[in-house]
Design goal:
Blueprint: H1 3-30, E1 48-54, E2 69-75, H2 92-96, E3 100-101, E4 116-117, H3 123-127, E5 133-138, E6 154-164, E7 167-189, E8 194-207, H4 209-221, E9 223-228, E10 247-251, E11 254-258
Antiparallel strand pairs: 1-2, 3-4, 5-8, 6-7, 6-9, 7-8, 10-11
Length: about 260
């Protein structure tokens, strides 16, 4: 064999050996076991209970219909004693049908029997807090903020009376009074057929017995106007609110002044 042939064979063998060594190392890298990933803790299951909730908004005084109520799963840890549960009252939807809402109920809010009253009973008497009275006063659109005063609003009561033949005076006799109901009608006006709310003749107010006497006397002296209060006034301390000064009553030539406390 020629020397050149021997050298070629030796080079080829060395190259083959090197290639085999490289292939062996690459194969060993591919077979390395992947690192183990720590298992994440599994959250415990949440215990749920079907609770009766409002399927849509139910306004004050509105009747409860079958489509107004729906069963929804609720976490047992968040259950309240007043919630209606399917496990204990499976026929609640049919049992509550026809009842009236004492206070507004929002869609998705759990139903509580304390917020409902039977339609065959006096609704207004059920809405009134203990010790309070419902009193109707004569009003008109001009004396009810143009008809924008609605139930659950808070108002000041003003007495407008003639001081003499040429002068009329107005005086605030009560402040921060709750409106229970307002006599209104809905009318279609214009070509666009958009409904408009028109105030009528009566507003029903929540008053204490003393305030009831004051307002009744005021209606005999002059006319009543209602001034709408902003919602933010409900968070103001009572000391910042104006106290009523009362009204003067003349009987047999004797002038006396009648006052009342603010509405709670």
């Amino acid at each position: 064999m020629r020397p050149i042939q021997l050298i070629i064979l030796l080079v080829a063998g060395a190259a083959a050996a090197g290639a085999g060594l490289i292939a062996t190392r690459i194969g060993s890298r591919d077979t390395v076991a992947p690192q183990q990933v720590a298992a994440q803790p599994v959250a415990p299951p949440i215990d749920l209970e079907d609770v009766l909730v409002a399927a849509k908004d139910i306004g004050i005084g509105k009747g409860v219909e079958a489509d107004s109520l729906v069963w929804k799963p609720w976490p047992k840890d968040g259950l309240n004693d007043g919630y209606i549960q399917r496990a204990s009252e499976p026929d609640a939807v049919s049992d509550l049908k026809g009842m009236l809402a004492r206070t507004p109920i929002l869609a998705g809010e759990p139903i509580r029997k304390a917020k409902l009253v039977r339609s065959d009973r006096g609704f207004l008497s059920a809405v009134l807090p203990e010790g309070m009275r419902a009193v109707a006063v004569r009003v008109n659109a001009a004396s009810t903020a143009g008809g924008f005063i609605l139930p659950e609003d808070r108002v000041d009561i003003l007495l407008v009376r003639q001081k003499d033949a040429n002068e009329a005076v107005a005086e605030t006799i009560l402040t921060d009074v709750r409106v229970l109901a307002i006599d209104q009608s809905v009318q279609q006006t214009g070509d666009d057929k958009q409904p408009s709310i028109v105030a009528q003749n009566t507003a029903t107010l929540e008053l204490t017995p003393d305030q009831t006497e004051l307002v009744t006397q005021a209606q005999q002296i002059g006319s009543i106007s209602l001034a709408l209060r902003p919602l933010v006034d409900a968070n103001q301390p009572a000391s910042r609110q104006r106290k009523p000064t009362g009204i003067a009553v003349v009987k047999f030539g004797v002038v006396s002044r009648v006052t009342a406390q603010q509405a709670p």
